[in-house]
Amino acid sequence: MLEKENSSDNKTRKSSLEDNKDRSENDLLKDLTKKPAVYCKDLVKDFEIGDYIVRAVDNVSLSIYNGEFLVIKGPSGAGKTSLLNLIGGLDTPNSGIIYSFGVKISDMEQESLTTWRLLNSGFVFQNYNLISTLTAEENIMFPMNLSGVDFKDQRKHAMKLLANMGLSDRREHLPFQLSAGEQQRVAIARALANDPPLIIADEPTANLDKKTSQFIRDLFKELKNNIRTIIIATHDDYIISLADRIISFEDGRIIQEEIINDIKN
């Protein structure tokens, strides 16, 4: 009888420990989602133009949370692209710090920064920036190749992304053989190739026809539903309507912030 009681007590204690472990893991997950995916503090970026120094980013501090859809809007020349390049690791600040997914990237050496960027951030540029000598499929495979993905897996994933973009029949076309909208869809597929946690887009629907713009907008809506961290500079009202937070940027500074959905709570 005593042995049975002890056995029962042990099972109860074991169950209690497992419950506590589950609660601890859940609490940890909650804490991780509340921490910023990207944390920027006192960012400054200057550019020399002849005898003048232009300050594109002027003492900017910003936190961006996991799963947040952040829109940055402002006039041409406000410094939006410069800020995006700093956040995504395409450029480094003159001063200030940037942490991205727990890694300090603001003072990384270029080689390390390139490796980090390859795995953690996907860029969608206004002018597409496709490699002119590579086909649509090869452009998408390119970042996977750099990150060491097996060739067969590269091709398989590239073909899947092209299909998702409605471009299966354009996979062997070079960029100059594609329309502007098709090039932008290839560029988005390339940004997604390594499944990065952060997507950064700079005016992704600018200069596109109405039908293609709607296709791109729907893609970003789908990405939002997949709970990716997304940062977009845009004037597109539809994309702006997807935002969890809207930042107005002018003269290198954040002048206004509107929270639509407080993602960190």
Please render the helix and strand layout as text.
Blueprint: H1 2-34, E1 36-49, E2 52-65, E3 69-73, H2 80-87, E4 95-100, E5 103-104, H3 110-120, E6 121-124, H4 136-146, H5 151-164, H6 180-192, E7 198-202, H7 210-225, E8 229-233, H8 237-241, E9 245-250, E10 253-259
Parallel strand pairs: 3-8, 3-9, 6-7, 7-8
Antiparallel strand pairs: 1-2, 1-4, 4-5, 9-10
- CATH class (first level) name of the largest domain: Alpha Beta
Domain module tally: 2
Low-confidence stretches: 1-5, 10-18, 28-32
How widely separated are the two ends?
51 Å
Oligomer category = single chain
CATH superfamily of the largest domain: P-loop containing nucleotide triphosphate hydrolases
> How do the strands line up in the largest sheet?
6-7-8-3-9-10
- Report the CATH topology name of the largest domain: Rossmann fold
Structural class: alpha/beta
Proportion in β-strands: 25-35%
Mean pLDDT: 87
Biggest sheet architecture: 6 strands, mixed
Could you say which overall geometry the principal axes of the C-alpha atoms support?
globular
